[in-house]
Amino acid sequence: MSGITRRAAVAGSLAALLAAGCGRAGGRRRGRASIEGRFVDDGVRAGHMFRDGRLQQGGSPLGAIRKRVVVVGGGVAGLSAAWRLARAGVEDVVLLELGKGVGGTSRGGTLRSPDGHEHPCPFGAHYLPVPRPEQAALVAFLRDAGVATGLRLDGSLEIPDRLLVRDPAERIAGLGFFEEGLWLHAGATASDHADLERFEAEVERRVGLGADGRRLFDLPVERSSVDARALDRTSAAAWCDELGLTAPRIRWYLQYATRDDFGATLEQTSAWALLHYFTARANLLSKESAPFMTWADGNAHLVRALVRSMAGVEIRTGDVALSVEPRKGGATVESIRMERGERTRWDADAVVLATPQYVTRRLLRDDPASGDRALLRYGPWIVANLHLAERPASRGFPDAWDSVLHGSPSLGYVDATHQLDRADARDTVWTWYLPVVDDDEAAARTRLLETPWEEVRDAILADLRVAHPDIDDLVTRIDVWRWGHGMVKPTPGTMWGGVRERVARPVGRVHLAHSDLSGMALFEEAHWQGTRAAEAVLAQLGVAHEPLAS
Amino acid sequence: MRLHLAFAVVFLASACGLGYQLVAGTTSSYLLGDSVTQFSLTIGLYLFALGIGSYLTKFIDRDLATAFVRVELAVAVAGGLSAVSLFLAWRSELWFRPLLYGEILLIGTLVGVEIPLLVRLLREELELKELIARVLSWDYVGALVAALMFPLLLVPRLGLTRSALAFGIVNALVALWSVSLFAGRIRRPGVLRAQCAVVTVGLAVLFGRAEGITRLAEHEIYAGEIVHARTTPYQRIVVTRSPGSFQLFLSGALQFNSEDEYRYHEALVHPAMAIVDEPRRVLVLGGGDGLACREILRHPEVERVVLVDLDAAVTDLARSFQPLVELNGDALRDPRVEVVNADAMAWLEGGASLFDVAIVDFPDPHSFSVGKLYTDTFYASLLSRLAPDGAFAVQSTSPRLAPNSYWCIAATIESLGTFVRPYHAAVPSFGEWGFMLASRRSFDVPADVPEGLRYLSDAFVPTLFVLPEDAVRRDVEVNRLSTQTLVRYYDDELQP
User: Fold this and answer.
1) A169 with A401: CB under 8 angstroms?
2) Out of A161, A398, A399, whose CB is closest to B376?
């Protein structure tokens, strides 16, 4: 296993995992051949046609439609912008999404298992930490959506217990034997434990306020104090080196965190971002981190709530924006309906451009920040939904929500039925996550698209077999999502080096909204960016509103 | 003289052969229950395998004596280890039966080789009619002696595992003896003697340590004889019998002992029935054994009982296992009783009908999946299915052995704004056992139970609500889905 780890760090996780899959498959298992499945990703073809300029030429003549606001992009940022506009009473809004479904990487759905059971499961992001009262936009949305049932006396959100991750939340396996939690005790030396304590002391020291009275690390990141920002100049790896946190055990643990939250290695992550992950959700007094909310189909539950809450917004899926052109008093958007080839020109008073920056720089005409947008790096992800006829046996600590395999390039898997009260259902869906942390993201994306499904299947099974030797005989189906640009990477300098500030600036009446403007692919950031952009539109249009994202 | 020795070999080999058959039949009946089926299957398979063995001897043309010794040794190993391996494999639903039947077939086939080979080895010594008559008569005498010794001497003195090992040692010694007997016809007697010695010593060592090995096997936790055993997707069901009573175990935990279960079930059911004016609709969650239903049906005003138990195997047992049917008065076939096999939490939320009384009788919170059924979220669902004046009782582990767990259940129910009265009863098989009585409205200590109960009387019921000093209230946290504090308390208190 340590062989894979080292290779994962050096040569990239996809290569390592595929090598593991091929090396260990051996063809002696009889279960694998009967496993169904395919790539199920959405919007890849449309996105690539747009990238290659193939959509820009064709299409039937333009029809022109006037709209108050056009939102381009149906991820969480775009949906949140539409939610904020609808909440302020703005009607006549259209949202354009190139894929078949909205929600971006927060999508999820219901998959039918071969034996006929319907299983809700996530296709990407799958939990949200309970926000603090100061996160006004998110708090307002969760109350609108009925997720929060009220406010407690101390101002914190009241969340029904069944929405919180059920205990046991996490377990980690070393050599196939599970323990509770994410820090593997088996084989850890006294010095390893001392490393963890030292790191935790560093973290605790930073759960507090800066001289400017702001939290050192806050959500949204924009509100963070200026005091800790210098940490952004070093990589998390270099910061760990300075502290002497160099032993493999602590490095794996910390890199698990950066891979999990950012899809990046410690070298690719800013030290500021690493500390943000461990501190931003902690209570200033108790130093305890906020509990997580989750649903069987992950954050798709929140996406549905967003969609429900925007009465009056027309959502057009399969509609690819081709260009966004700011003009005096508004902006013009051109789009094409993929299935029919019809082109539409949207004349809007304002546009919320809620696309990732690698798309934005191809859409936006006269873009002053085009060069800056190209600096952002995005890591590819593989997310696989595995249907299991029954839960496999495992040794050690019993089934949990999240099962992590120590030493693996994957993040492990989440059990979709953990949050359901179904002791009588024995089959389940596991969602397995692999952030591809290669330094050359473009090459990794190419490789990801070229790898046949069978190889991905074998790699996944090889990864899980360490902890579940009978996995091949229990998996009936593997549906694989390839997220070419799964997450933006908070590389050193990205957070406070000026890039984010420049790419987030509105261009005339075109306002930008996306989690990558925050440097971190978090639901909280996507929602805040969407709300912020929408409120800038509201201000420009002169619509009275109480700011939630100031 | 030589011939007499040869017939002694026949006698011993045959005695051992029957011995393994008895070991397999007894072990499987002991572990799986249903001895008629187990013995029929064992005998049938074994005889069939003897035939296979006999047939296979036609392919043995050379070195008959060596082949015989080797077969004897193989029988010694396979037969000697049969009981030990079965006890060790018993926990595995997947492997136990294949191992059992595989072993029967293997031993039978090997034993089936013995007699035809011996007949051929001895055919130059005697005329055929004389030979067949003598060999087969010694064969059957051997069987008789083994059949008599097995129940009278071997099992009572040695136990099953050591009886099998003893047969194995005899087989190995027979092999050693045969080397001398057929010395002239064996090419390398030294090697064979050494092999015989290794097997004999190996089995003898195991014989000395058999007790330690068997202790590894789960069956040791059961004091009584196992009369029914089944592994379901959810748990392992075992019924044991001891003189005058029987016991039900789920996943190794005692659910009731027929000797004193009335104390438990009277205490579980009647206080809740007493504080509701007219309990017409009653819900039982868990309690698939039907014993709580029996107590509920004592109340003439009851019109409908819904029993929700996850495991159909338990409710089936309560309807078809005769001793249990007699004990629960065939309650599950009563027209007023409806049996549902479903997850209790999902079932509560899937319906809307209301109940006057609910009896909550889940296993102790030993795992996270059972712990969910003791959370505030679960009790909120339960309250939503309870009439405004309704009441419910919850089995709540032992207030003496697991006080934190006991008071955690109390605190969790109270956290919903419900009135709770903790109480307890002495159930010898369990020790001091605890319950909660709860209702949305405040209520007095009940003092009115049906007549003719064996444990409770109007005068005695109020005393259940006085807790002894060693069970005083603890300051504990509420059990939630997100924390599962109860499972953690219980784990600390009751698991070694």
Assistant:
1) yes
2) A161
Contact state of A166 with B482 under an 8 Å Cβ cutoff: yes
Q: Sign of torsion, CA A497 A501 A507 A513?
A: positive
Using CA atoms, how far residue B448 sits from B271, B273, B276, B361, B421, in Å, is: 8, 9, 11, 22, 16
- Write out chain A residues lying below 8 Å of B343, CB-based: 421-425
B395 Cα to chain A: minimum distance (Å): 20
Q: Which of A161, A291, A423 sits opposite B369 (nearest CB)?
A: A423
10 Å Cβ neighbour count for A257? 17
Report the residue of B231, B478, B481 to disrupt the A interface, i.e. the one with the largest count of A CBs within 10 Å.
B481
- Sequence length of chain A is 550
pLDDT value for A25: 43
CA proximity to A302, closest of A155, A434, A422, A159: A159
Which residues on B lie below 8 Å from A162 (Cβ)? 377, 481
Reported as a single tens digit per residue, the pLDDT across A145-179 is 999 999 888 888 999 999 999 999 999 999 889 99
| CA-derived radius of gyration, chain A | 23
pLDDT tens string A300-344: 999 999 999 888 899 999 999 999 999 999 999 999 998 888 899
Report CB contact under 8 Å: B372, A291. Answer: no
- Asked if residue B92 has pLDDT above 90, the reply is no
Task: Indicate if the pLDDT at residue B416 is higher than 70.
Answer: yes
- ipTM value greater than 0.90: no
Could you tell me which of A485, A464, A475 has the C-alpha nearest to residue A411? A464
Say yes or no for a CB contact (<8 Å) between A161 and B367: no
How far is Cα A19 from Cα A108, in angstroms, rounded to an integer? 29
To which H or E segment does residue B50 belong? helix B35-56
pLDDT value, residue A403: 97
User: Cβ neighbours of residue B409 under 8 Å, at least 6 residues apart?
Assistant: B374, B394, B396, B397, B436, B479, B486
B256, β-bridge pairs: B248
Asked whether the beta carbons of B282 and B449 are under 8 A apart, the reply is no
How far apart are alpha carbons A141 and A302 in whole angstroms? 9
Partners of residue A423 in chain B, C-beta under 8 Å: 234, 310, 343, 345-346, 369
Both structure tokens of B86? 């079965």
B361 is catalytic: yes
10 Å Cβ neighbour count for B228? 18
The alpha carbon of residue A461 is apart from the nearest alpha carbon of chain B, in Å, by 22
Q: Choosing from B361, B364, B389, B475, which is the catalytic residue? A: B361
Residue A108 near residue A120, CB atoms below 8 Å: yes
Cis peptide before B428 (omega within 30 of 0): no
Q: Which ranges in B231-310 belong to alpha helices (H)?
A: 261-274, 291-296
- Cα separation, B332 vs B329, in Å, equals 8
Q: Do A423 and B482 touch (CB under 8 A)?
A: no
Model confidence, pTM: 0.78
Q: Which residues of A touch B377 (CB under 8 A)?
A: 160-162
Chain A within 8 Å of B144 (Cβ-Cβ)?
Answer: no
Name chain B contacts of A117, Cβ cutoff 8 Å. none
User: Two tokens at B257?
Assistant: 């002992």
B405-416 burial, b at 16+ Cβ within 10 Å, e below that, comes to bbbbbbbbbbbb
Minimal Cα distance from A420: which residue of B? B346
A424–B372 CB contact, under 8 Å: no
